[in-house]
Amino acid sequence: MADINKVHELHGQGFNCAQVVAYFCCDISGADRKAALSAMGGFGGGLRCGEVCGAVSGGVYSLGQYCPYTDSSDIATKTKIAELTVSFTSQARAELGALACRELIPDGDHSPCEGFMARCIDLVHEIIERDKQNGNL
Q: Where in the chain does DSSP place strands (E)?
């Protein structure tokens, strides 16, 4: 379970939602923490325009690092990352109520964001752990 105090600490240092989620998923995704922070720099605030929640974007990034689709002829991996992503986004939408930042915080009140981050971190961990238990990757 994500440590909300650690989420609060990293977010309080100025890192956005996507960066925080990607950072705390590095242990299970295999991503480099510095690279995750760098890659996710522009994804906060729903791509800086209220679109897909940064916490969700950080989760999808983390799944991509866990299941890297880097060879266009690798249809099995393409299928697998699509399935992992759909599982994650479906669960996130069901639990958070939406995927768009502007729908999650319509009045600009960012107080629930750290809870969203913690839940997305947990979802990524749950999905990857389930995948590993099924003998994958």
A: none
Q: Give tens-digit pLDDT for 94-114.
A: 999 999 999 999 898 899 999
Are the C-beta atoms of 127 and 84 separated by less than 8 Å?
A: yes
Q: Supply the DSSP symbol for 135.
A: T
99's CB contacts (< 8 A; 6+ apart) are: 52, 53, 56, 89, 92, 93
Question: Dihedrals φ, ψ of 118, to 5°?
Answer: -60, -40
The pTM (predicted TM-score) of the whole model is: 0.96
Following DSSP, what letter does each residue of 43-63 receive, concatenated?
-HHIIIII-B-HHHHHHHHHH
Average pLDDT, the chain: 96
